[in-house]
Write a structure and sequence with these properties.
CATH topology of the largest domain: Tetracycline Repressor, domain 2
Shape: elongated
CATH superfamily of the largest domain: Tetracycline Repressor, domain 2
Strand content: under 5%
Number of domains: 2
CATH class of the largest domain: Mainly Alpha
Number of strands: 0
Largest sheet: none
Oligomer: single chain
Structural class: mainly alpha
């Protein structure tokens, strides 16, 4: 409660100080998550110590414990935070005014590119594998499929793909192919080839679902 004899300037300064501390706390939390992502990607959750994360972030153990109590707490924060990236990527796809197959392709490419390029997202993949979080990853893949379904419905309406398609099954195949391209690129150590791998998979997938328009001109 504000002291009634306290000057307005002193009260304002106190509020600014509180805001500054909150901003610093938020920045420290982000630094810790980034530092943990590096450690998890390199050494796994089991091979990472609290001291490793604090040292990489450049903070004391006390500062780390203010935000997180254990290494597992940090891992779960990264896991659940990064597997929630789909709405952001969907918004980016919609901003390009795409529909149908072009939208499905663009959205899926954005997802796997994010999972290749973003430090925290890459770490979340390692965490899910190591901690056996199959439910979290399964829900992520299911959400991805559900986002593709309206695009595939548009593709049918636009006569891009055949009407006899089971669009849920087609959405699942697209996700499985894109995910497979990501894993192969990662395990082969040639992440830069991800776009080409996805395009090869995509072109072959289209052969099974596109409307037959007769021989293609080369």
């Amino acid at each position: 409660m504000t002291n009634r004899f306290e000057s307005p300037s002193a009260h304002l300064a106190a509020e600014r100080g509180l805001g500054s501390r909150r901003e610093q706390g938020a920045q420290t939390r982000e630094m810790l998550l980034d530092a943990a992502a590096i450690e998890f990607e390199r050494h796994g959750v089991a091979g990472t110590r609290i001291e490793d994360i604090a040292q990489r972030a450049g903070v004391t153990r006390g500062a780390l414990y203010f935000h997180f109590k254990t290494v597992e707490n940090i891992a779960r924060e990264l896991l659940h935070g990064e597997f929630g990236l789909l709405p952001e990527l969907l918004e980016g796809t919609r901003s390009q005014n795409l529909r149908g197959l072009r939208a499905a392709r663009e959205f899926s490419l954005r997802v796997i590119a994010r999972m290749r390029d973003d430090l925290r997202t890459r770490a979340s993949m390692h965490i899910a594998e190591e901690m056996g979080e199959v439910n979290t990853r399964g829900l992520f893949l299911q959400d991805w499929q559900n986002i593709l379904i309206p695009f595939l419905q548009q593709a049918i309406a636009d006569h891009e793909i055949r009407e006899d398609q089971d669009i849920r099954d087609t959405a699942a195949v697209i996700v499985e192919c894109a995910w497979g391209a990501l894993l192969v690129a990662r395990e082969s150590g040639r992440a830069e080839d991800l776009g080409d791998r996805f395009e090869r998979v995509w072109s072959r997938l289209l052969l099974g679902i596109e409307v037959d328009r007769g021989p293609r001109l080369v």
